[in-house]
Amino acid sequence: MMQKIFSQEWRFKGFTDPWDQRKLGDYGNIAMNRRIFKEETSTEGDIPFYKIGTFGKNPDAFISQKRFIEYKSKYPYPKKGDILISASGSIGRTIEYQGENAYYQDSNIVWLNHDERLVNSFLKQFYLIVRWSGLEGSTIKRLYNKNILKTNICVSLVDEQNKIGNFLSKLDSLIAANEDKLNQLKKLKKYLMQNMFV
After folding, report:
1. Which of left, alpha, beta for 120 (phi over 0: left; psi -120 to 50: alpha)?
2. Handedness of CA 111, 112, 114, 120 (dihedral sign)
3. Tens digits of per-residue pLDDT, 93-146?
4. 75: Cβ–Cβ under 8 A, 6 or more apart, which residues?
5. Between the CA atoms of 129, 132, 136 and 142, what dihedral angle is there, to the nearest 10 degrees?
6. Which of 21, 45, 110, 198 is the most buried (most CB within 10 A)?
7. Could you say which DSSP state residue 192 is in?
């Protein structure tokens, strides 16, 4: 379905304008948090510090509130809704920044600091099917800024982006809810079977 939407085989009613073929770099630049050194972290603290190994999971390092406030005010920091990308290890994994107080490992976790011509909900869905520039068939485990910025994207007008992003986000939520339900039913079945056969 996503392939058909992004290839424009399927369009929402009322939208007929052609999509623009661009590069992600036409919409903005790559941003990342200021570097945090190991000695600036602790195993407990005020602000979670996500490294590439804990990206999308539970943090195992923290920074002080003071350092967080200083760096957030002086250096690049994601806005609520920005899509963070893993640029190392399992490259291309994404998380939507929800506005919580957190800090991210520089150069390993980045985001596209883009203008208003791109909608984050649309971009999030695009990242699920993207073919990063220069990485096809490669064993490289590093997504460089140039790979992101040179990646091709077909973009519709903002209204259609919003429609697509919202529609696919609702499907994601529905899938997640059903997966939770399925997991609960599997646990219930396991519990019942263990008790029946004892």
Report:
1. alpha
2. negative
3. 999 999 999 999 999 999 999 999 999 999 999 999 999 988 765 566 789 999
4. 33, 34
5. -120
6. 110
7. H
For 13, half-sphere exposure in the C-beta direction (CA atoms, 13 angstrom radius) is 0
- Residue 151 tokens read as 């990646």
DSSP 161: H
What gap in Å lies between CA 197 and CA 154, rounded to an integer? 57
Residue 132 makes CB contacts below 8 A (sequence gap 6+) with 91, 92, 143, 147, 148, 151
CB 126 within 8 A of CB 69: no
**In terms of C-beta density within 10 A (0-12 exposed, 13-18 middle, 19 or more buried), how is residue 92 classed?**
middle
| CA distances, 188 to each of 162, 180, 182, 183, 196 (Å) | 39, 12, 10, 9, 12
Q: Which residue has the tokens 């943090």?
A: 59
Give 164-179 pLDDT, tens digit per residue: 999 999 998 899 889 8
